[in-house]
Write a structure and sequence with these properties.
alpha/beta; two-stranded antiparallel ribbon; 60% helix
Length: 345
């Protein structure tokens, strides 16, 4: 047991001294340092909502115009037809849509009316209930005065009052209760109006993708070192039962340093549950060891393996999702991508 520990320790030191492995370790550490040096930026989150107004009532037109100019987490913009609205929602340009049909202004206070505001959504729509609250907030402020005039004008003692004087009285009373600071006052302590949702963001770095590629590449190069040592007759004195263990030691010693560095680097750049991340990296490292061991059995000659290795690594970069995910384009490409461990990491 002590002899095997010494062998593994020596192979680990040898792996750390190899220029390629050392370069991969330094690259991951530099990415972590660069990520920490990137300043966090605050970005506003706006949800695009298409709005179509087909009514000619001034109140409904004003409502649509105010929605478009409104400072909110929703970005309302006008469309000219329902077909354009459907296309924008299905194409992802709009998150949802609001349709204000003709005749809405005349029937807006009639609960039994069939003329309704229609909201179009998709499975990807965000905060549709909040979007409805937005338009009802604007519309109610505009129709409340009209409703008050209709109700008050029909009651005593206002039924005999001059219509112009009654309108002026109601408008002043309505403004007093809805906008007057005597009833409800809002004080802004931030120095300005800002009611959009914001989130902190950093420039994304492909740390996880590179870590997955480096762990895979280290394991594959570990087999290359083993085959070369074997052909140089370094292991001729070993028993046959010990040779598979030496093959495993070569792969594991090459993978271990990259694996140990990848865990804190990914944790720093992505966050998450440390234990779950460690488990995932460990399982991925085991998969890479099994993959490299299989190739070691299939390609027993160092010269042949050295020619195949660049092809395998290139395919892993192209098909394993390191640069971009080719599996999104075609089913056959996805099947090919699944042949390389980086795809799963």
């Amino acid at each position: 047991m002590k002899l095997n520990r010494n062998r593994f320790f020596i192979l680990c030191k040898r792996s750390l001294l190899q220029p390629v492995n050392l370069a991969m370790l330094i690259t991951l550490l530099l990415l972590a340092l660069i990520y920490n040096g990137i300043p966090t930026s605050e970005r506003s989150v706006y949800i695009p909502v298409a709005i179509l107004c087909e009514d000619d009532d001034p109140l409904i037109i004003e409502t649509a115009e105010e929605m478009i100019t409104r400072n909110s987490i929703f970005h309302f913009y006008a469309v000219s037809s329902r077909e354009e609205m459907y296309n924008d929602i299905s194409g992802g340009k709009a998150n949802s849509g609001l349709y204000l049909p003709a005749g809405l202004g005349k029937e807006v206070t009639n609960i039994a009316s069939d003329v309704k505001i229609i909201m179009y959504i998709s499975p990807a729509s965000l905060l549709p209930s909040l979007c409805r609250d937005e338009i009802f907030n604007v519309l109610f402020r505009k129709i409340a005065l009209r409703m008050a005039k209709e109700k008050v004008a029909a009651t005593e003692p206002y039924s005999d009052m001059d219509p112009a004087a009654l309108d002026q009285l109601l408008e002043e009373t309505y403004q007093y209760y809805t906008e007057g600071s005597e009833i409800f006052r809002v004080e802004d302590t931030s120095g300005g109006v800002y009611n959009a949702i914001t989130r902190e963001e950093k420039t994304e770095l492909p740390v996880r993708k590179l870590a997955g590629l480096f762990i895979f590449a280290a394991g594959m190069m570990g087999i290359a070192t083993y085959l070369k040592d074997k052909e140089e007759r370094l292991y001729d004195r070993l028993r046959r039962s010990e040779r598979p263990l030496m093959r495993l030691f070569h792969i594991a010693s090459a993978i271990l340093p990259i694996t140990l560095i990848s865990w804190p680097v990914i944790l720093v750049t992505e966050g998450g549950n440390p234990a779950m991340l460690l488990l995932r990296i460990f399982l991925y490292a085991l998969a890479c060891i099994a993959y490299a061991t299989l190739f070691g059995f299939l390609l027993r000659r160092s010269a042949v393996y050295q020619k195949v290795l660049p092809v395998i690594l290139t395919l892993a970069i192209l098909l394993g999702g390191v640069i971009f995910d080719v599996s999104k384009f075609e089913q056959s490409m996805r099947i090919l991508s699944m042949l390389f461990p980086p795809y799963y990491f």
